[in-house]
Design brief:
Elements (H helix, E strand, L loop, with lengths): L1 E4 L2 E3 L10 E8 L6 E10 L8 E10 L4 E8 L6 E8 L9 E3 L5 E9 L2 E8 L2 E8 L5 E11 L8 E11 L4 H4 L3 E2 L4 E13 L2 E14 L2
Antiparallel strand pairs: 1-2, 3-12, 3-14, 4-9, 4-13, 5-6, 5-12, 6-7, 7-8, 9-10, 10-11, 13-16, 15-16
Keywords: Signal
Organism: Ascobolus immersus RN42
Protein name: Concanavalin A-like lectin/glucanase
Length: 217
């Protein structure tokens, strides 16, 4: 991934010079505290019409916008593959493991901070892969659900996420209960069963379902 704009990133291994087309929702955390501490949920795997530069992902981005920690569903080979990684600078780190996944399956993802290290986990039908990324003292203040397309249209149908849980070092909850940022108003989406709670200095955001339905008309 390389820096595309102050708050947008895309994959460095992209070989095309075309600009990516972006659709994403972003939960922006207010200033203060140590940022997000965990992000988990599940992704329902859509169909893949053809091989193409489809990147679909949940992820976390820090306040300094130097990269993004993400679980990328990659369609370049005509079959979905998903893996976790930090992309792609400051620091430069290897990607974690991954596996193929197929239409109709559900892949669970989890990012958890432990000091300066972020641990990742993906689970598919009992198959598990993990990763570990030392990101120093980066403060994650953006949680994203993103669709990143280069040279291909949004032709795979809806992208569904379930049972999202986002935890943050804050006592504020508006970042959870208010509507997320919808980049350029580009995405028609739905969300339901949003609940926020606070215990000590930790706010927990539970979202039952988010569906990125289609490009907004």
């Amino acid at each position: 991934m390389r820096l595309l704009a102050p708050l947008l990133l895309f994959l460095a291994h992209l070989t095309s010079v075309q600009a990516a087309t972006w659709y994403f929702l972003r939960w922006n955390l207010p200033s203060g505290g140590n940022g997000y501490t965990s992000f988990s949920g599940s992704m329902r795997i859509p169909r893949i019409p053809k091989a193409g530069t489809y990147y679909l992902w949940p992820g976390l981005q820090p306040a300094d916008n130097t990269g993004v920690l993400q679980a990328v569903l990659d369609g370049r080979k005509g079959t979905w593959w998903i893996g976790c990684g930090w992309c792609c600078q400051n620091p430069s780190l290897p990607w974690g493991g991954g596996f193929n996944t197929y239409q109709g399956e559900t892949v669970q993802f989890e990012f958890t901070r432990n000091g300066n290290v972020w641990n990742s986990k993906l689970v598919r039908n009992g198959q598990t892969t993990t990763g570990s990324f030392n990101l120093g003292n980066k403060r994650m203040n953006q949680a994203l659900l993103a669709i990143e397309l280069t040279g291909v249209p949004w032709d795979f149908g809806a992208l569904q996420f379930d049972n999202l849980v986002i935890k943050a070092d804050t006592t504020q909850t508006g970042w959870c209960t208010n509507a997320p940022e919808n980049y350029n108003g580009a995405t028609a989406y739905s969300r339901n069963n949003v609940r926020a709670s606070v215990s000590g200095n930790t706010a927990t955001c539970n979202i039952g379902q988010v569906v990125l339905q289609a490009p907004a008309k």
